[in-house]
Structures are given as structure tokens and as C-alpha cells.
Amino acid sequence: MNKSEQQHRPLDNYISLLYHWNRRIRLVGEKDPATFRRKHLGEVIAAFGVLEHIAWQQAIDIGSGNGLVAVPLALANPTRQVIALEPRQKKCAFLRMVGHELGLTNLEVAATRLETFVAPAGVRRLWMARALEITPVLLVSVLRRHPGDHLLLFSGEASPATLVLTAGRDVLSIIDRQTSAVDAQRTVTLARILG
Fold this sequence. Notes:
The protein is an alpha/beta fold and 195 residues long. The chain has one domain: Rossmann fold, CATH 3.40.50.150. It is built from 6 helices and 7 strands; from the N terminus they run ααβαβαββαβαββ. The protein has helices spanning 3-21, 33-47, 70-76, 89-101, 136-143, 160-167; strands spanning 58-62, 81-85, 107-110, 125-129, 150-156, 172-179, 186-193. A 7-stranded mixed sheet has the order 3-2-1-4-5-7-6, sandwiched between helices. A hairpin with a 6-residue loop joins strand 6 (172-179) and strand 7. Helix 5 packs across helix 6 (160-167). The longest helix is centred in the first third of the chain and has 19 residues, at 3-21. Mean pLDDT is 91; it is low at 1-5.
């Protein structure tokens, strides 16, 4: 097995688990696993390139859902902690099972909402949001309490995530903003949270 095959096997296993569990609980709307891999997973993995120059110790995936951001990030960064923040118990059960099946000892599942989550102090943190289901104002109010941390935001033209940049213009300093490598209607933004 070559290096490329070794790198893709865990992602293939993740997609297989995702579609198997999707029969029981709604985890993904895309019917075709190959399209999901190219369109959704491809966008997330391509976005990780913007993280090269920031030193983070812990990443928090807000509203992790099916783990689309948390799982690949945990796979790519085995020495860094990734927290999948997800309030829905069935999705937490899925995420825990994925972490176990893929041997992701660095993936923690927190069954809580963003507004009640207490982030550990003294850690360089990366907050991540994709398919945002909370108000931009709530997200910005939480980020405001974490100056020096970073935010990786995936957004589409009409998505609530786009409004985070407007609502947070006084607390977010954009470091990098790129058009998605997969969908020209979507952007990936890396911002520093100001004090």
C-alpha cells in the first residue's frame, strides 16, 4: 500500500460509517458518497491549507453534526485535540463511534450547546463553523470571550455564517479568505479574534 492509499483509507472508512448510519439518523443529505467526498469533504480538506501558519493546540468544531470538519482535522493532526461540539445525542453517539472505529484518541465529543460550553483556559484554540445552525450574534458573543484564538469559517453566499463576518467586524480580523476549491459560491475564511 502506498502513502496516498494509507492517507485515504481512514477517510474512506469515515464515509462508509457515515452512509451506514445515515440509514438510521439523518447525517448527510447527499445521496452519492463519491459526490460527498468530492464536494463536501474535498472543500474541508482543501481549506486546511490556510491553517499552516497558525499555532493551535485545540480545535472546536461548533455544531459538529456528522463530523465533516472535526474528523478529517483529527485524522490530519493526531497530536492536537479536536472537540466535536454537538448538542444532539444521536449525532454524538455517531461521532463517538467514529472516533472509536478510526482510533482517534485526540477526538473528544462534547454533548452540549455552544452557549453552555466552557473552553479550557490557557490553550491556543481554533474555532470552526460550517453549516451554522446558531445565530451569528451568539457565535460572535462567545468568540468575544476568547481573544487571540482563531476562527475557521465555511460559508456560502446566503448562509448565516456569512453574517458572522458582518456581526463580528469589530472582533474578527481576517487573515485569509479564499473561494472554496470545490464550489465558487462558497468561501473559507480564517480570522483572528481580537481582544
